[in-house]
C-alpha cells in the first residue's frame, strides 16, 4: 500500500513547502470517507476503513476543493481504491486503499432444524452479519420464511436462503380443489380433483370434474389450482 504513495512523496520532498503549507491529511481522509459513503448509497451499517495515506506523507496544500473518484471496481463491500486529486496548484494525485464492511440483517436458524420442517417464528432469529459473509439470496426478515418448509437440514446459526425453502404442502392427490383460469381479462372457476400432491407454487395436474379435462396449474396460497389462459 505504501508503494501507492512513494512516487508522490518523493516529488513533494524535493520541493519542501513553507511551514503550515502542507496539505492536511485529515481533510484528505474526510474527503475519502465522504466520497465512499455517498457512492455506497445503501442501507445497513457501513464501516469505511482507510489504509492510507501514510501519516508521514507530505503534500503541498491544495488551494481548491479536493476531487475524488473510485479507481476501477468499487464493490459495495470489500476492498476498493479512491483517487484523491488536487485540481489547483500545485496539482497532485494520490490513491487511497479503502475497505468497506457492510453489516445487514440476516435470518438464521435459532436451533438445528430438520428437512421438511415447517418454519415458525420461534425457529428463526434476525442477526447482524457482514454482507460479504452471507450466501447469495440470503433472507433478512422472519416473514420471508415463516410457514415455508425446509428442503434440507440446517444447523443453529446457519443463514437461510430462498433456495433452501419451499412452500408448505397445500394439496393432496384426490383432494377436491378449485381450478381458477385467468388471463386476457377472463376469470373462470371450476371444481376439480388434484391428481398429485402439491406445495404452494408447485405445478401439478388436476382434472376438471365437469369436463373430465386434465389441466396443469400452479398451487396457490389457498390451495386453488391456478391455470394461465393465453389469448
Task: Describe this structure in a few short sentences.
The protein has 231 residues and is mainly beta. It has helices at residues 3-14, 25-40, and strands at 45-50, 67-71, 78-86, 92-109, 124-130, 149-150, 165-166, 169-171, 176-183, 186-194, 198-199, 203-208, 214-219, 225-228.
State the domain count: 3
Taking the alpha carbons of the first and last residues, their distance comes to 63 Å
Question: Count of DSSP E strands?
Answer: 14
Largest sheet report? 5 strands, antiparallel
Which SSEs are present, and which pair or pack?
Layout: H1 3-14, H2 25-40, E1 45-50, E2 67-71, E3 78-86, E4 92-109, E5 124-130, E6 149-150, E7 165-166, E8 169-171, E9 176-183, E10 186-194, E11 198-199, E12 203-208, E13 214-219, E14 225-228
Parallel strand pairs: 9-14
Antiparallel strand pairs: 1-4, 2-3, 3-4, 4-5, 6-7, 8-11, 9-10, 10-12, 12-13, 13-14
Which key terms come to mind for this protein?
231 residues, 14 strands, five-stranded mixed β-barrel, SH3 type barrels, 2 helices, five-stranded antiparallel beta sheet, mainly beta, 3 domains, single chain, Type Iii Antifreeze Protein Isoform Hplc 12
